[in-house]
Amino acid sequence: MYDKNDPRSALASASPSGPAPTGLIAEPQLGLFYESEPASDDASGRTWYHRGCNFVLSWSDAKAGGRFERSSQPDEYVVLLPEKGKGARITWNGMTTEVPGFSIAFVPPGDSLVETQSDGPLCRLFTVKSADLVALCPNHNAYDQPRTHIPSFQPWPVPPKGWAVRHYSLDVPKEAGRFGRIFRCTTFMVNYLDPQQGPRDVHKLSPHHHDDFEQCSLAVTGSFTHHLRWPWTIDMDDWRADRADHVQSPSSYVIPPPVIHTTRAMDAGFNQLVDIFCPPRFDFSEKRGWVLNADDYPMPAN
């Protein structure tokens, strides 16, 4: 259910009619980095981890000269640098790439090194194939009961021009008819949403649900209230009371399908939210012009 001016109102719905299937309900996953102890605190900075069904989110309060290495990384991962002027140097396959602040970068499989050039935030996204990082998540066992309604992770096609560190500026002007600032790679889709100045208008919310994939909402700046409503199925064991979880920044909030959800920015100032999907979403990818780096990362053929 979207406001008529919301670009998502034009998305096709494949949802069946009638009540949601039973046995699909799970709890959201909260990672409140601002009030929890980090998994590591060393010369590179303080780092937290939080997982979803298919992914691990790593948030670091990085220090200048911080070194974040991956050895024999099994698949492509994401580096998000959310502040201007706070860039990083990424080395992969013997080549070093300078990535400015307020950018998103995609790092190929294999050995790599991210070096932060100043104190500031660093977010990295990995699939659960990085088992060593899954083990560092406080909620590492949250998915011991399989989510059978979420398809098993399958990567999207390798870039036609081959593997390389690719990076893109997040400084993209807002455009009528386009939703946010969306980038994708073989493993993730990241939507760096248009910022909200001041609280969100309570008369223009967007309650909706996803049938078979999670949404991770990363609060970068400001504060938010995540509103969740569980659909009624024929099995009362699936029912839950409504939730309204107020979170500050930085925090990670993983919303399970098919829970109805919408989020309100709350602070009087600048509020920045980032939506993360693993693997990429087909419906957003099918909207011409929405994925800003679609030429570099094609959709699956089928």
**Residue-averaged pLDDT, rounded?**
94
Give the strand content.
35-45%
Total helix count?
2
Q: How many domain units?
A: 1
Written account of the structure:
Residues 1-22 are annotated as: Disordered. Residues 8-21 have a biased composition (Low complexity). It is a single chain. The protein has one domain (7-170, 180-285): Jelly Rolls. Strands 1, 13, 14, 15, 16, 19 and 21 form a 7-stranded antiparallel β-sheet that branches. It has a 7-stranded antiparallel β-sheet with strand order 2-3-4-11-6-9-12, with no helix packed on it. It has helices at 131-134, 282-285, and strands at residues 29-32, 40-42, 45-51, 55-62, 67-73, 77-81, 88-92, 95-99, 103-107, 110-116, 120-127, 166-169, 182-184, 189-192, 196-197, 215-221, 224-229, 243-247, 251-255, 260-265, 270-277. It is mostly beta strands. The protein contains 2 helices and 21 strands. 3% of the residues lie in helices and 38% in strands.
Topology:
Blueprint: E1 29-32, E2 40-42, E3 45-51, E4 55-62, E5 67-73, E6 77-81, E7 88-92, E8 95-99, E9 103-107, E10 110-116, E11 120-127, H1 131-134, E12 166-169, E13 182-184, E14 189-192, E15 196-197, E16 215-221, E17 224-229, E18 243-247, E19 251-255, E20 260-265, E21 270-277, H2 282-285
Antiparallel strand pairs: 1-19, 2-3, 3-4, 4-11, 5-10, 6-9, 6-11, 7-8, 7-10, 9-12, 13-14, 14-21, 15-21, 16-19, 16-21, 17-18, 17-20
Biased composition (Low complexity): 8-21
Region (Disordered): 1-22
